[in-house]
Amino acid sequence: MFLKNCWYVAGWSHQFPASGLVARTLVSEPVVLYRKADGVVVALEDRCCHRLAPLSLGRLEGDDLRCMYHGLKFAPTGKCLEIPGQSFVPGKAAVRAYPVVERDCWVWVWMGDPAHADAALIPQALGHGDPGWRMRLGELAYRANYELINDNLLDLSHLSYVHAKTLGRNSMAWGDSRPSTTRLERGLRIQRWVVGNPLAPYLGRPAGATTDSWQSYDYLVPGVFLLTSRFFEPGTAATLNMAPPPPDLAPFWVSLTSQAITPIDEAHSIYYFSSCLDALHADDAQADAQIDFFRRAFDEDNAMIEAQQRVIDRTPQPRMLATASDGALTQFRQIMAHLIEQERVPAEPVQARA
Q1: Which of 44, 108, 150, 171 is most solvent-facing, going by the fewest CB within 10 Å?
Q2: For residue 123, is the peptide bond before it cis, meaning its omega torsion is within 30 degrees of 0?
Q3: Could you tell me which residues are beta bridge partners of residue 140?
Q4: Of 105, 107, 110, the residue nearest 121 (C-alpha)
């Protein structure tokens, strides 16, 4: 099942050109997106109301979209403007239009009731489009249910195992660390010290150098991961008695990543991710090295999760054993289940905020 009353990433801004149609499937719904002359992105149901032909095979005529099966023309609002061969256009001749917001280099689409679309609910990505950060980006297709990817990102102890030769760097520092979890309005905040972990080679420190890193991330509905990693000299965590670093304690390195999971359907998902390094301390080569490092690591996640999905698919009544590491992912599943259940109960629309 999917949560509909929330914002989903439909893609990176650059994937929606000034002219042309882009087909997407979001939470099992076909959607066609395009830009109007003023640059604003439109999202319509990718299904003509006449014979159900995909409008993504249509033609843009100014800001309107014409179906190239029998020629019906639709406004950006979804209203049919013209039906060839007849002068009368019935009121029910329309396709669904979805609220869209372009923000932080992502295009977000609200898949639920438009009356409840609130732009204030869009999570703020970290460093996206900010010239103070060297940003790199990527995406990865999964043949897996979105919940398994959420689970993976909510329990980072897997870094010591799945990513032993990449993000885990042959260390048990991630596997041995225990995070604190704080409930947010629509998600969780997860924080921990990762003590004595080897540094990534692209950071420019000598081989074998280690760090105490403070890892803090928000995991927000419907599956948005916003991580800030602050790297300190070894021994810092012990000096602070494992308390969070104070604001005036400057790390020698900071890395940001924003990631978003968008369900295509129950068995397929798309994973959007970024990496951002402080432009004052990192050069382009280091930014390129980091995103390449991330891609290799995320391919490892993909292989594991797709294999997990295959096992689930052939297991009658699959059940999973809970462990101490599962606290955050269990809480997040509960948050999502509660919001999905709320959608079944009529609610008063909110006043949309810009």
Answers
A1: 171
A2: no
A3: 271
A4: 110
Q: How far is CA 210 from CA 1, 175, 204, 231, 243, in A?
A: 43, 16, 12, 10, 19
Which structure tokens are listed for 283? 């050069």
Name every residue whose Cβ is closer than 8 Å to that of residue 318 and which is 6 or more positions away in sequence: 311, 312
Structural element, H or E, at residue 100: strand 100-103
pLDDT-derived band of residue 208, with 50, 70 and 90 as boundaries? confident
Q: Which residues pair with 32 in a beta bridge?
A: 23, 44
CA angle 292, 294, 299 (to 5 degrees): 100
Neighbour-count burial of 230, counting CB atoms closer than 10 A to its CB (0-12 exposed, 13-18 middle, 19+ buried): buried
pLDDT digits (tens, 9 = 90+) for 151-195: 999 999 999 999 998 998 888 889 899 999 999 999 999 999 999
**Which tokens in the block code for residue 76?**
């950006």
Q: What angle do CA 82, 86, 84 make, to 5 degrees?
A: 50
Domains within the chain, CATH numbers bracketed: 7-121 (2.102.10.10), 133-339 (3.90.380.10)
